Amino acid sequence: MKSPITYGLTLLLILAPSLSLKGADTSTLIQNLEAGKQQTVVTFGTSLTAVGAWVDQLAVSLEQAYPGQAKVINGAQGGANSDWGIKNIEEKVLKHQPDTVLIEFSVNDAVGQRKTTVEHAKANLNSMIDQLLAQNEQCEIILQVMNPAVGHTSTRRPQLAEFNQMYRDVAKERDLQLIDHYPNWQRVLDETPLTFLAYVPDTIHPMRDGALNVITPHLFAEIGLTKPTRPEKSVDTPCWKYLLHVMRTDKKSPDTNKADFDAYWLTGFTKSDLDGNGSLNAAEIASPALLAKLDTDKNGTVEQAEWTGSFPDLFSAFDRNGDQVISQLEKTRLVLPLSDSPDSLAPYTDASQLPKDAREMWGSYDPRAEDLDVKVHGEWEADGVVSRLITFKVGTFKGVDSRISAYYCFPKNGQKNPAFVWSHGGGQRADRNRGHYFGTQGFATVDINWLGRPLENDTQDLTDWGKIDPTQGPGFYKKALRKHFKSDFQPDKHSVDPIMSPRNSNWFMLALAGRRALTFLEQQPEVDAERLGFTGFSMGGTITSMTSIDPRLKAVAPFVGGTAYLWENYAGMQTGGVIRNIKDIELYQNTIDPAAYWPHVEIPVLFITSSNDFHSAQERIYRSMDMLPHDEWRVTGNVHANHGPGPEQWVVLNHWFHQYLGGKEQNIPATPPSTFSIEGNTASFAVTPEQPERLQVVEIYYSYDPNSVARFWRRAEQVEKANNTWTAQIPVHAQLPLYTYALCRYQLDAEQPLERGSTKTFVLCSDDHTHIPSDIDLAQYQSLPKTGLVDDFANGMQNWSSRNGSSYKTYKFQDPELDTSGAKLAVTLNLKADQPILFGIGTDSKFLGGGRDQGNFHHGRRLDGDGETTVLLSPSDFKSKDEKTIEWSKISTFTITLTDANTRQGLDLSAPEHASLLKRIELVAGE
Q1: Closest CA relative to residue 655, chosen from 762, 747, 528
Q2: Element spanning 615, H or E
Q3: In principle, which of 208, 558, 610, 677 could form an S-S bond with 562, CB 3.0–4.6 Å?
């Protein structure tokens, strides 16, 4: 079993992104060092500084970044408070004539038995500040608030919060920088309490690894130390040396034995047991999260065995030879040696090494260079398809192997089959059923489980990224080293490069894993290595775009992800851009954004989407396809939907890969040719689809809303057909944009079975056409003709979409021609006497931007009756978890569900037998 110290290091790195909080401006210290000036730094405070490993980590890193320029002097004293600070500031600080001083005394000023008041401590702090400025008015003074305490070290400090707040107040009053470590430590204590104990085992003093992973990264971020450094090069463990020294009962021996070690932790328990009853209650533990974790028998208290049981493995972290004694030499060897394993990528160490574009970034990487070391963890066979659960090596990074799990599925036909990689979306996982289905269709697939979520019931999550982490955090991957997905280029402990680099973005590592999956496929005996493709959903769609320039590919098909220009807002709006804090936007544009890839993709591209997709805004799809150096692309999408292509879209994937990987002619029509022109206040949109004999319907849609995710698509009602051309005349309004495209539905020769369901039709979308006036002004929405009518269902459910056939969603409330000033919502239904209805409405306001998200609302009731019935709803009839009042104009999606109260079955409102249930939805004036 790993010791808690080693285990704690792994756990805490889960919290890394939230721990490295962004600082304010660069500190004077760093500015002066950048200017080549010599600097003296003095740290002044309690034992949290005196035996704090962070001090030496700071000194080591400053020396690495600015050799010979910075001197760091530790002027702190264990047990000291601000009274000691006043008495010793001359000897410990002023005589060194510091340029920068870091001060912290609040943790010991708060010790109750000292009877120090907050006012007295504040006067002491101000006096120290005055003395420093009197000596040198340019002296940079940085105040620090340190970590929380638990157990007896907490109960001894009943007013610690007030003393800490005083430091924050003084910093604000005197315009000094404050580095507040407390929230980061509190997050560790609340979210991973045993990690807190591993880093702060005596309940008050952070050890080396705690400093290295919590204090030091935050300190560096706050002072603006952005140069690549390796604070882990400081192997000093002053706090452990102090504790191991204190533990000894034989003061003549430099060693610490196991009995003394265990007795020390028992003493901590005894001191915390204020009432002496042999157990610790919530007040004595002083941390609900820690109490819950240590209370293994769930009786509400922590007994001695539960407390001391958290510590035994700490001993083995030092006692390497197992002789039950921690020798003087072993006290210096807590730090594990760095691995000597060669990495798959040579780190960039200088900005001159950074790639200029995506092709240069990937040109130096050979995905075939390393052995995959494939392992099979399970195998199944059904319906002539073999499915295997495998792992393979992605590479070695920071001295540790990264391995990824996947399902490999192939037809058992004795042939070399066309094959493709599937990359799942964020929050998803690899799926054996998906691979099995494609196996029945004649494809071999490898479905990579990059997020690392568990796959089979009897198999643990086999993906292990080692010391890097391109996942989305511990909510999905329990071994995550960061709390969130990392898009920025800044270096951290889990990035490839120690300098700002596009390879530090998680997108890079996921695309690298995709290339290794192609290497796996081309090595399989069941695969034709000359017929490889790539596809993926959402985040997997973006990974598809970033892999699409791999020369081994013959066709790609991104789903709802992979669009370019992600840094741009929507036309006329201050929302829509999704790229934040990249620092070097030009480097992002040239290396990571799909815009860096699509101009170089020479193979056929199928984009599968939804009209209101949040991850692949519709205009961005077409702008991406316009970047291709060829015309062999298609877009297939469903309307009034977000992030959920339907059967008519999924089926096109089969045809695409059959044609371009399998070599089987599928007779796929070209992207429907279209034209667009404006004359006066009217736009003319015309589309002439190929193969008109196969057409079932042509639908022309338009909108005036630049918000691609929340817009309502109006279907043109007056469409003329002549010579296989469909033409619509669309009103144009001054200063408002216009968006339009056609959806063309084709008949299949036969019904096509899918993984879920089947379809007799498929959809291709025309190119889109947009009109963006130079003087765009969305305030002109108010000049449009208005109506309170949401829908009269004269055309059935054409303005709605449904994933399950019972809940129907519309974006109609974002139609700029809807009058949302109505006081009430009137819903008219045609009820049947023998069919009581459970009537439900749900709304959300996602993706509106501009602070318009009002959250989710719902309303539900039972309806009984015979004949036409109108339900009149006021805003107060809609409930939300935070008790807000619904605003009609802030509804992005409106969902209605009708359920048969007798059978509890949802009613498909598009089915003929239920088509007359809904008669009208309208916003009306109040009584």
Answers
A1: 762
A2: none
A3: 558
